[in-house]
Design brief:
The chain contains 15 helices and 15 strands. The chain is 41% helix and 16% strand. It starts with 9 loop residues before the first helix and ends with a helix. The structure holds pyridoxal-5'-phosphate. Residues 48, 108-110, 134, 181, 185, 213, 215, 249, 251, 257, 262 line the site of pyridoxal-5'-phosphate.
Length: 403
Amino acid sequence: MMLDTSPSRPAEILGALRPSVAAESASGIVDVFNYAQGKPDVIPLWVGQGHLPTPDFISDAAIASLKAGETFYTWQRGIPELRRALADYHSRLYGIGFNPENFYVCQAGMQSVQLAIQALLEPGDEVVVPSPAWPNYAAPLRMAGVRPLEVTLDFNHNHWRLDLDRLFDSVTAKTKVLLMNTPGNPLGRVMTRAEIIAVRDFARKRGLWIIADEVYARFYFPEPGRNDALPPSFLEHCDRDERIIFCNTFSKNWAMTGWRVGWMIAPKIMGRVVENLVQYNTSGTTTFLQKGCLAALEQGEAFVAAQVAQARTGRDIICDALDSSAEIEFARPEGAFYLFFRIAGTQDSTALSRRLIDEAGVGLAPGSAFGPGGEGFLRLCFARKREHLEVAAERLLSWLKRR
Ligand SMILES: Cc1ncc(COP(=O)(O)O)c(C=O)c1O
């Protein structure tokens, strides 16, 4: 008998993949990004990063480590000096003690989310996710066979309201985790202290885990007159050794999105589990990158302060300009560095974001990329230099007049 040695057809190959992985569509942010490639003079405000490269004092520390030959296999949990520096950094910020044993270094915020998913969830489990949300929660959950229960926030009178009763009512016997992001991407909404405490109490009562993503905690813009430097945090209200995993990253505060280094704060008792997960995912995070991260924590405060000040100015430039149009609606963001706004009459935000690339020269992420509640909106990253934002606002306003 002749063996069939003909190559498989593309459909057969896809058909043989794990259905939950093959079925996942491309991120709507990536779609717009790809659409704009090669088009001249588009102001890129679709992704979450500033325009500055990583400062030299961070890069130099990584280069020095690389040149010193720190190129070998490394600690699964992160190098001890970085874990200690992370604990000290949090102690300085929050004025409470942190133990290095609760810190786990990994490959950026995205991997901290993945490790939390892998540690906590099995196919068939459910996770409550307030929505609109960063798309990189629902997609990896679905790919892991886990069902995201997306609970939509209400947008009314230029305000996003989180209905905690609805959030709690969505929990079923299969729900294991509440995934909370504050300050939030894409809404720029900051959870109140009362909301944080209510979520914590509910999770404790029902034996649920919390995954708390606070990667934008430094980007907080309280109203003038308020002197709280940081937004309310689960860190202040939960014990490090209870059922909570914090996700964080070097990407945003220190302009290090391309480095791919982040951290988790999780119960000490999970040490062996996290170590195994790291071992079988990546076998550790590059030592010389971690040395750069150490410099970021030890010498980076002035840089972070400048980034936050620039983001606040960016928020004001964009909000003040777009507020002048009766056709645009939004909640003024209190944190993170995104404006999530709606142009009257928008039905299809993907089509609109493509039109804005072609007709206005402004690159925005479509609201539909952020899950239920996002369609009709657009997301703009304002962590950019003043000139970019001023020109982007002018272009959007003049496009509105002539459309
Ligand atoms: C809410 C949120 N969490 C986590 C991340 C992770 O960032 P990274 O993987 O670049 O560290 C992002 C990035 O945009 C984000 O918006």
